UniProtKB/TrEMBL annotation:
Lineage: Eukaryota, Viridiplantae, Streptophyta, Embryophyta, Tracheophyta
Enzyme class: oxidoreductase
Cited function: Lignin degradation and detoxification of lignin-derived products.
GO molecular function, one term: hydroquinone:oxygen oxidoreductase activity
Keyword Glycoprotein (UniProt): yes
SUPFAM superfamilies named among the record's database cross-references: Cupredoxins
Protein's name in the database: Laccase
PROSITE patterns given in the database record: MULTICOPPER_OXIDASE1, MULTICOPPER_OXIDASE2
Similarity comment: family membership: Belongs to the multicopper oxidase family.
């Protein structure tokens, strides 16, 4: 195994998109940021040097960080932010993971522009469970605002209302042909007739689920979130923010130019969304030159086509039989959803009918500490930072997908953790609520990947739904897009000690509190215990 050393300089860089130049936060002046490519078993040592204007932290999305929670990155959860002028070195080892992950800033909304791909190849001497593709392209889907990204953050954080929707989606940082002033920079992926290509598709968008498709070409899904899946073909895939999907494509069409495209899957009723389409071009090298015709656009589903989403996600199955726990020690039921609070009319009260949005899990709207991180508070026994009384089930039961009186659901704001015993087998039912509107929420768990044993619509009903769980080959993920007005059930073994954030990967929802944290206690001996904190861990 190898050790890879990198320097990530976080700074401001002028970037031109949609006819205008904005200063954005980048790593090493690159947008998207550098691609990290490693093999399973390798160690990454990344020195983050912050010469920008804002506090920052970096997160390695989907990396398990076994016993190294100090390198996980969410601000005030596992570390205090790296202040302007400061540095911090992230050091971690990849253990038994292969596929496509990514990295991003985990401080306020900086991940809007601070992100990149993290590719994990099989160990030397081992190979993919499918024929080696001739070419590989990472495809990072993102969002772009035609204003200072920091203003976008401020608007969403401080008005209590819905965030401004983006002005463009992007593929590897470029909006593409269909947007103003963007044609020249539209990305081209060149192929020869007959090539097989591995597309590593990553949804790095801040607030939007996305459909993805390539005109005239079928996609063979072979993995998601750094785990291999049973291959199946489809013309379209859907990714929630945070999710990745690996697909194989064969260049077997008439040599020409075809659009690679993505646009919104927007399940919420009456919520505004960016309805534009980002494109890149798949170009056969042998295509006739000088033909000025526009490439073919793929048929993307309608923005609210939940049936297509369900048809896609229900086909995801692990490549081989898994070690999904069949007995459960800790059975949890978490509601996920948006609500609102009455507030005094004013600039911070821009939600529906003189309210402001607040999101919660089991009625708790998560509040980050400021004096220290949760992990430090646990490790150093600092009292008064958090409590461990996060409710294992909702405090009140109701019809989660029906109309609910607002009085029933006024979230409490606090920093509550849920304690898991080392080695315990955990099941969580994630249930969408309709307090504001039903939505699909991409729920991401740090420090773990988990088995998705079931999902469906309406209220989860254990008597009806448990019998249908897949306990043979459920897909392994780190982010589950809980169906709109429905539920998903995940299972994992709590074998990684630390404090681990679980949250909605839509940043506006995270800002409103759709998060909680697990505290997984140390097991017996060194191999089951958190490593000591690095000497350069930033102070608060
Ligand atoms: Cu992709 Cu908490 O993050």
């Amino acid at each position: 195994a190898e050790t890879h050393y990198h320097e990530f300089v976080v700074k401001e860089t002028p970037v031109k998109r949609l006819c205008r130049i904005h200063n954005i936060i980048t790593v090493n002046d690159q947008f998207p940021g550098p691609t990290l490519a490693v093999r399973d078993g390798d160690t990454l040592v990344i020195k983050a040097i912050n010469i920008g204007r804002y506090n920052v932290t970096l997160h390695w999305h989907g990396i398990r960080q076994m016993r190294t929670p100090w390198a996980d990155g969410p601000e005030y959860v596992t570390q205090c932010p790296i202040k302007p002028g400061a540095t911090y070195t992230y050091r971690f080892t990849i253990e038994n993971q292969e596929g496509t992950l990514w990295w991003h800033a985990h401080s306020r909304w900086l991940r809007a522009t601070v992100y990149g791909a993290l590719i994990i190849y099989p160990k030397l001497g081992s190979s993919y469970p499918f024929p080696k593709p001739k070419l590989e392209f990472p495809i990072l889907l993102g969002e772009w605002w035609d204003r200072d990204p920091i203003d976008v953050l401020r608007q969403a954080t401080f008005t209590g209302g819905a965030p401004n929707v983006s002005d463009a989606y992007t593929i590897n940082g470029q909006p593409g042909d269909l947007y103003r002033c963007s044609s020249k920079e539209t990305l081209k992926f060149l192929v020869d007739l007959g090539d097989t290509v591995l597309l590593r598709v990553i949804n790095a968008a801040l607030n939007q689920q996305l459909f993805f498709s390539v005109a005239n070409h079928r996609l063979t899904v072979v993995g998601a979130d750094a785990a291999y899946d049973k291959p199946f073909t489809t013309s379209v895939i859907m990714l929630g923010p945070g999710q990745t999907t690996n697909v194989l494509l064969t260049a077997n069409q008439t040599p020409g130019r075809y659009y690679i495209a993505a646009r919104a899957y927007a399940s919420a009723r009456n919520a505004p969304f960016d309805n534009t389409t980002t494109t890149a071009i798949l170009e056969y090298k042998s295509a006739k030159r000088g033909v000025s015709s526009r490439p073919t656009l793929p048929q993307l589903p309608a923005y609210n086509d939940t049936a297509t989403v369900t048809a896609f996600t229900s086909q995801l199955k692990s490549l081989s039989q898994t070690k999904v726990p069949t007995q459960i020690d800790d059975s949890l039921f978490f509601t996920v959803g948006l609500g609102f609070l009455n507030c005094n009319p004013g600039p911070r009260c821009q939600g529906p009918n003189n309210t402001r949005f607040a999101a919660s899990m089991n009625n708790v709207s998560f509040v980050l500490p400021r004096r220290t991180s949760l992990l430090q508070a646990y490790y150093q026994n600092i009292p008064g930072i958090f409590t461990t009384d996060f409710p294992p089930v909702p405090p009140v039961k109701f019809d989660y997908t029906g109309n609910v009186s607002r009085a029933l659901w006024r979230p409490v704001f606090s920093t509550k953790l849920y304690k898991l015993k080392f080695g315990s087998r955990v099941q969580i039912v994630l249930q969408d609520t309709a307090i504001f509107s039903t939505e699909d929420h991409p729920i991401h768990l740090h420090g773990y990947h988990f088995y998705v044993v079931g999902q469906g619509f309406g209220n989860f009903n254990p008597n009806r739904d448990t019998a249908k769980f897949n306990l043979i080959d459920p897909p392994v993920r780190n982010t589950i897009d809980v169906p709109v007005g429905g539920w998903a059930v995940i299972r994992f073994v709590a074998d990684n000690p630390g404090v681990w954030l679980m949250h909605c990967h839509i940043d506006s929802h995270l800002t409103w509190g759709l998060a909680m944290s697990f505290l997984v206690e140390n097991g017996v001996g060194e191999l089951q215990s958190i490593e000591p904190p690095p000497a350069d861990l930033p102070p608060c």
